[in-house]
Amino acid sequence: MSFLLVGLWKLFGGIHRVDGVNWNCYIIDDDKLTLIDTGMPNNSDKILAYIKQMGKKPEDVKTIIITHSHIDHIGSLEAMKKAT
Fold first, then answer.
1. 61-65 and 32-36: which strand pairing?
2. 6: which residues sit within 8 A by CB, 6+ positions away?
3. How far apart are CA 72 and CA 70, in angstroms?
4. pTM (two decimals)
5. To which H or E segment does residue 27 belong?
6. Could you tell me the sign of the dihedral formed by the alpha carbons of 46, 52, 58, 60, in that order?
7. Which of 5, 40, 54, 56 is 20 to 30 A from 83, alpha carbon to alpha carbon?
8. How far apart are CA 62 and CA 22, in angstroms?
9. Pairing of strands 15-17, 3-5
């Protein structure tokens, strides 16, 4: 079950689906942030805005997990590595 909370998609616990990113991108908030997949290219600004909406900073992302190498999972990886 998911619900909209202050513009954020919190799926359950500390797991968020980053809305507005083309395809796959999730964040686990467990004191530190873990980014799972980065969506298509040119989505890093949306991901960073979502992190800011969470009340966090880019440097709070300590881990980026890529589930596999399709473009809809790795497209914004380089930009997110630089930003975090």
1. parallel
2. 53
3. 6
4. 0.83
5. strand 26-30
6. negative
7. 5
8. 22
9. unpaired
Domains and CATH numbers, the chain: 3-83 (3.60.15.10)
Q: pLDDT by residue (tens digit) across 51-76?
A: 999 999 999 999 999 999 999 999 99
Determine the 3-state secondary structure of 72 from DSSP.
helix
| Chain centre distance of CA 66 | 11
Distance CA 3, CA 82 (A): 31
* Tokens of residue 36, six digits: 């799972």
37-54 pLDDT tens trace? 999 999 999 999 999 999
Amino acid at 49: A
Please give the biggest Cα pair distance in the chain: 33
Q: Which residues pair with 10 in a beta bridge?
A: 3, 16
